Amino acid sequence: MGLLDGLLDRSIFFSFDGSGFRRHSRDFDHRDLDPSMGGKVCIVTGANSGLGLEVARGLAAGGATVHMLCRNPERGEQARQAVADEHDTSGVHLHVVDLSSQSSIRRFAERFEASRVDVLVHNAGLLPLEREITKEGLELTVATHLVGPFLLTQLLRNKLHGARVIFVSSGGMYGKRLDVDTMMANDGPYDGVAAYAMTKRGQVVISEMLAEELAGLGATVNAMHPGWAATKGVEHSLPRFWKLMRNRLRTPAEGADTALWLAVAEKVAGESGKFWFDRRAVSTHLMSRTMENHTERLRLWEICSSFSNSAPKEGE
Length: 316
Ligand SMILES: NC(=O)c1ccc[n+]([C@@H]2O[C@H](COP(=O)([O-])OP(=O)(O)OC[C@H]3O[C@@H](n4cnc5c(N)ncnc54)[C@H](OP(=O)(O)O)[C@@H]3O)[C@@H](O)[C@H]2O)c1
Description:
eight-stranded mixed β-sheet; 13 helices; Rossmann fold; alpha/beta; 8 strands
């Protein structure tokens, strides 16, 4: 990397924005996305818009069978139809699943008939403007970004031999240290940006821990961040940022590029437990103050596990 590239990357702004993608992609080998995905079974959560839709498109383009997990039936079906039409394939399926709901995830896992999963992309995400507590008693970002994906991974565990599991985290997590008590608090002042960043930090930690857990299955687990891409999520949740930055943002396909690359590129087949940005493994911390200790990591694991171990409640 040249001196100028190094300086631009350190600025964050000229790294996360569209110019950062154009600069970084000069080093990409575009053949990396070519491998045939024919016969592969892929799951993408939050697949009806933004980055998730682009990942689903890319996987379908490679010939994979794609299972799109979306919470809204109409938006989901519209997206499924669009992907199926674009690639003239019947191998694109919609499952209505709310990733913030353990009962919805359990219902999906019970009915999901594929005998194996080759790619599992945990993409569903949101930045709430106000605190929302799910029916199951969890703050919405904890439920959607951590407990839901962890549960889905564990319920599909027997199908994940040799799979690639990918978490779509966020560069916003760089500003936050994992603090499980703050993250799990359901009262007191609420800051949606902070909750989002903390749970995105949590996704990076949990992906590292799952990488160890699933190594015995030959599965890999990685997290990535997309930089700043123009999606409805950003427009809705960060209107001021959107107004200032909309012309500088990456396209959704550019934001999704590294997630898709982690799903298909042959050169990353054995990579696991890393954090990626623009097809490069990058540090998970930019400041020492954000480093969590071992106890905090274990507490996060125990919390996520506690929901996976518990039997579904009556009526679920
Ligand atoms: N765009 C960026 O610059 C950026 C930066 C950093 C990280 N990310 C991450 O990228 C991922 C995708 O976001 P995006 O920017 O593409 O925004 P988006 O267009 O709003 O996509 C988010 C997707 O997640 C779905 N979703 C949210 N909650 C869900 C739930 N409980 N169950 C099922 N699906 C749910 C949304 O469904 P609905 O359509 O029903 O709402 C939507 O399909 C998120 O994890 C986000 O944190 C994005």
